[in-house]
Amino acid sequence: MAITVKYFASLREKLGRGEEQIAPEGIATARDVWNRCVKTEPPLKTLVAINLEYAGWDSPAKDGDEVAFFPPVTGG
After folding, report:
1. Res. 76 pLDDT band, cuts 50 70 90
2. Closest by CA position to 37, among listed 16, 56, 9, 64
3. Which of 6, 29, 32, 61 is the most exposed place for a label (fewest CB within 10 A)?
4. 3-state secondary structure of 34
5. CATH superfamily of the 3-70 domain
């Protein structure tokens, strides 16, 4: 299987992609997912969700999970 990685809003625009699949080998946390896919520090206050639930950067990520990254949500 794989880990599905999704990027939303300005992150999607900046990275030029909205979704990708990565192999789970060597992945333990959401931070590992980001580091494998992006290779730079995440923008300040970037949010993480694993399987549609808010999560922390050190939350476990495993085979079959969906890990999403998105900028802070604002309203108005």
Report:
1. low
2. 16
3. 6
4. helix
5. Beta-grasp domain (3.10.20.30)
Beta strand extents in the chain (DSSP E only) = 3-7, 19-22, 47-50, 53-55, 66-70
* 9-67 per-position pLDDT tens digit: 999 999 999 999 999 999 999 999 999 999 999 999 999 999 999 999 999 999 999 99
Helix, strand, coil shares of the chain, percent, nearest 5, are: 20, 30, 50
Cβ contacts of 42 within 8 Å, gap of 6 or more = 34, 69
Question: Which has more pLDDT, 20 or 1?
Answer: 20
